[in-house]
Specification:
alpha/beta, Collagenase (Catalytic Domain), four-stranded mixed β-sheet
């Protein structure tokens, strides 16, 4: 499966090579686990708490920083990827899934809080975001959230971090 990923960073002191590899690997594993076989494109922004707070405010009306934001471009059904229900870019042939913005500040803080590495936290947030781009959600405490959490656990087990 082809995955074109544009990764930009607004975090000058971050050496993003390990972050880039981890994001790509996590997205590939999540897409494979969800049965996505068509060529895809995803845009990623690695930023800090202040910039993600501004994005959260402008896009969602929430004036606070968060760990990851996902902006899907397709109307997909969770767990039932159907390439016939999507629209690829006619020029590139790529299915644009959407965008992810992730806060490196939150990654570091949450990794310390949960007792694991920054790269493990980044992999989890990347899987989480990818699932959002594929139609999953967790706005309530009901079955949708449980289903998404279950998929996250399964995919993270495949990643092995």
């Amino acid at each position: 499966m082809t995955l074109k990923m544009t990764i930009a960073k607004q975090y000058p002191e971050l050496d993003a090579r390990g972050f880039r590899r981890t994001i790509r690997m996590a997205f590939r594993r999540a897409l494979e686990a969800e049965g996505v076989t068509v060529p895809c494109q995803v845009d990623v922004l690695i930023t800090d708490d202040e910039n993600i707070r501004q994005i959260n405010l402008s896009q969602r009306g929430i004036d606070s920083a968060t760990d990851v934001l996902s902006f899907p471009m397709q109307q997909l059904t969770p767990g039932a990827f159907d390439p016939d229900m999507t629209e690829a870019d006619p020029e590139t042939g790529l299915l644009f899934l959407g965008s992810m913005a992730v806060s490196a500040d939150r990654i570091r803080e949450q990794a310390r809080r949960f007792g694991h590495s920054d790269l493990r936290e980044l992999a989890y947030l990347s899987v989480h975001s990818c699932l959002h781009l594929l139609g999953y959600d967790h706005l309530d405490e009901g079955p949708e959230k449980a289903r998404m959490r279950g998929r996250e656990k399964e995919i993270m087990a495949r990643i092995g971090l």
